[in-house]
Design a protein that fits this description.
15 strands; about 20% helix
Amino acid sequence: MCAHYGVDGFEGVGSRRASGSSVRFVSIGAATATVDESRDDALMLAWARDQHGHARITGSRARNLNPLIHEGKGARRADLGWWGLHVGGAPAPFSAFNSRDDKLLISWREPFQRRALLPATWYTEKGRDLGLRDGDLFTLAAIVTPVALGDGGQFLSYSMVTREAIGEAADAHHRMPLVVPQSMRDEWQAPSRAGDEALVRDMLRASDDISRAMRSFETAPAASQAAPRSGQADPTLF
């Protein structure tokens, strides 16, 4: 199951790929249609530089957070979220960093009503890095649970949705992240859209082409050895 993904292409952040990609992001906000592009670009760039563009499962000690795109406070925006769903206001006592598409209506019905996008240019499965051939940005499906803070605020916890692997991704593992094509990003995030069987069906069908377009690539040595800044260790699973 996928436990590593990330975004490269930012100024000052090394490329994940050993060669073959010169993609540079002018604006993540523009690419994902957020309302306040300058705010969201600044958030993404600060995260990318601090974490080397590498999203990791949030640890109980590391407390590393990762960017997600969602409909929050009445507008589409980027925020940092805790990778690993919370239950009852605390980290789930079971594995909750991935959620299967065929279990969304069985095990994850409530969080399925709150959905987000995870920006990525690569993900890792069984030691293999995969992404689109030219290193372009894509978005992964996530379900979300808000967690209340003592001061009246809140933060977001999330789980990455997975599906049966197809195309070259199936050579790495029988499951893969559910990739949300641009044509379905609005519907996936819309608070007015119920998380139901029809949404799962439509999303799977729409994701087939971009899922088959995923390709393995050679990882740059420096990228595979990079550690997060701020003294954070690689997080442990709950």
